[in-house]
Amino acid sequence: MEEMSTSKPEKPTTRSARTVSASVARRALALVAVGAVGAAAVTLLVTDGFDQPEKITTHSVAGPATTGPVSASSFGSADPGTCLQWTPTDDPETDRQDLAQVSCAEPHRFEVAKDVDMSAYPGIEFAPGSAYPGAMRFSQLRDEHCIDSVVDYLGTKFDPNGKFSVGLMFPSQTGWATGERTLRCGVQQSSNTGVPQEMTGSVLDQDQSSVWDVGTCIGINQNVPSDPVECSQPHAFEVASVIDLQQQFQVGIPNEADQDAYLEPTCTDAVNAYLGSDTALRDKTLTLFWSTIDVTSWLAGSRQVTCSIGKELDEGGFATITGSATGDILINGQPPVPPPAAPDGRALPTPPPGAAPITPGG
Known about the structure:
With 362 residues, the protein is an alpha+beta fold. The protein has helices at residues 22-40, 135-154, 173-177, 256-275, 280-283, 295-299, and strands at residues 2-5, 44-45, 83-85, 100-102, 110-117, 164-170, 182-190, 196-197, 217-221, 224-229, 235-244, 287-290, 304-310, 321-322, 330-331.
């Protein structure tokens, strides 16, 4: 059995004195989305199947003799709400051979929305002996069958911009040759590059906001954010706080400007507390940015956003940071150089063109 997914990156917001500019941050993260589309076309082999075959049944099709019977452990079927777990490896010959049904309260990587038996569809594409579809065709089948299946399963609770994505599991080439035609549609939590992450609890019961835990560092690849890594590893930014917008906006749907107005001071205070100093952000030459929630996500029930810290590059994208911002860091391999301290006394306004310079007491 193989698996395909989609994923979505976090979206920074508009510029302020301490925010990454929207054009830079969104452009960098847009490249993540492009990479995720490419990752979705890469299939991962899953052989064998469930370690509890007595709990599942097997789809089979009539037709010419095959190389062997289709057993429950090769793919089987799963009811909506079933949660599946496996141990990923880098070896395609051994990856996911321990695929098993588990309680959704336990860590898992896939929650089933619907099994679709393609052998029931007319035409020769899924008939016995038909050619194995390629990665692009499976991607189309995911969009054709799984998006609607997930929306039906979650109802209005599905946030297309949230941390969960629509996934597809499908038979391996060997399983296809033996007559397996089941497509398994479901929900998973994918990294920026499309790798399924462990999740706990049913998606039906969770806030789907696209956030990472405080202290998470997001890796970097060619100045673009990638997947979570240890903060001791090179990364693009670090999550300093998770903010629940429901506490501020209890009635109605806030627009982006209202969210920005609330999040600028709120994130600044949260980051200062996270770093342990009101001057640490400035001294480490880092910039603050946050995510916002659009109308679609708000209606789906998402309420959480992140306040993050990184280093914007003049040419676009992010600098490479090593170490947690709560301690000593390197930016592009060098320790940050704090800017000159602000002068004492009141700030003097810039004189209009042609006017004499303004002097203190003048």
